Structure formats: C-alpha cells, structure tokens
Amino acid sequence: MADENNIETEVAVEAAAPEGGEREGRGRGRGRGGNDRGGDRGGRGRGRDDRRGRGGDEDGGEELIEKLVHINRVSKTVKGGKRFGFAALVVVGDGKGRVGFGHGKAREVPEAITKATASAKKKMVRVPLKEGRTLHHDGKGRFGAGKVNVRSAPAGTGIIAGGPMRAVFESLGVADVVTKSVGTSNPYNMIRATFDALTDQTSPKSVAQRRGKKVADLLGRGGASAAEAEADAAAITE
C-alpha cells in the first residue's frame, strides 16, 4: 500500500509540474510584461486616435477651414526643474460667414493644436456678409491694449490685413476688406479685438426686422430710387 501511495504521489507531482511551469512562465511573462502592458496601452491609444478621427469626420461634414495662428512654448517650474509645454492659437471657419477661435495647451504640439481646434469649433459665431464677400459696414473692436479698425471694400480689393487678422477673414470667407491694427501686436488680443468688431456687424435685414420696416425703405433713404432700393433689397441675402 505504501508503494502504491508513493507511486500515486510521484505521478501527481509529475502531472502538476508542467502546469506549475506554465504558471511560472506566465508569471515571468507578466513580470517582463512592461512591454506587453505598454503594447496594450499603445493599442488603446491608437483606438482613441481612431475615434477622434472618426468624430472629426462626422463633425467636419461642412468642410471647415483651420488656420494655426500662433504657437508658444510655455514652462512650469517644478521641484525637479522646468516642465515645458506648448500653447496653440487656432482659428476655424467654414468660409461662409461662420468663424471661431480657440487656444489649447499640451506637452506636445499636435495635441495642443487638437485642443485649440476643438475649442474653436465650440465657439463659432455667425457674421453677416454683404454679397458674401465683404462686411456690411465699418467697425471698431477693442480688447485690452488691442484696437482694430475694419472697413468694407469694393470688389477686387482683396484682404488688406496682416497676421492674425488675415487668418480670421480668410476663415470667415471675406474676400474684400481693409483693416488696421492699432496698439498691441499680441496675437491673442488682436484676435479678440477682431471678434469684438465682427460681433457688432449688423445687416440691413436685421435692422429692418428690429425696426419693423422693409429693407427697401432703409436702402431708399440715401436718395436712391424706389426701383434701385427694391433691387438692392432683393440682392441682400443676410
């Protein structure tokens, strides 16, 4: 009986050995598996990028124009030294009267641009355009030390603007405009001052609705004939 018990014990040990070896091997695999886990994280990261790309396609069915205005390297002083990051300023528009701006910060430039673009898409505003190419009237905008003047222009003038202001009007879809920036050249303040001027723009149609009149009545007060006023009113889409 003792011999039979010993034989059974040896058989049980030999049968259990491969399983233990596999467990040990798997344990070592997990121990070395910083790489395996890193691969899993990389896979999840790629999954996030794919979802972000699909979301961009779904949101971007309207063909948005994205313009990078400014990138600034920023630093944060921590116990071990300095930690560097990047700040991006982006202007987004549809080229048909809608435009917005946003800024974002991240440790890498592409991620900062992505954040800024997402912020700009959430803050888009509509600006009425005359004939779809220029502003309805002159305007002024101010933010902090930044001051801008914007003026409507006849066809063929082009965009007379520089730096951040040009990016705004190109994204907005304006083809003819004359601008002047007075004061600071800080792109953040220039952009905000430009948006301050654009949000004050009004169209004849909105003024007529507010005053309870017809568009032709407003356009005919400058000495134009009734027929000319009616034609101009019919040509106004916004």
Description:
The longest helix has 30 residues, at 2-31. This protein has three domains: 2-41; 60-199, Double Stranded RNA Binding Domain; 204-235, no CATH class. The chain is elongated, with a radius of gyration of 32 Å. The chain has helices at 2-31, 34-59, 109-122, 164-172, 187-199, 204-211, 215-219, 226-235, and strands at 65-78, 81-93, 98-106, 125-126, 139-143, 146-152, 159-160, 177-183. A hairpin with a 2-residue loop joins strand 1 and strand 2. Residues 15-60 have low confidence and may be disordered. By secondary structure, it is α+β, with helices and mostly antiparallel strands. The strands form two sheets. The chain has a four-stranded antiparallel β-sheet. A four-stranded mixed β-sheet has the order 5-6-8-7. Helices cover 48% and strands 25% of the residues. It is built from eight helices and eight strands.
List keywords for this structure.
238 residues, four-stranded antiparallel sheet, Double Stranded RNA Binding Domain, 3 domains, alpha+beta, single chain
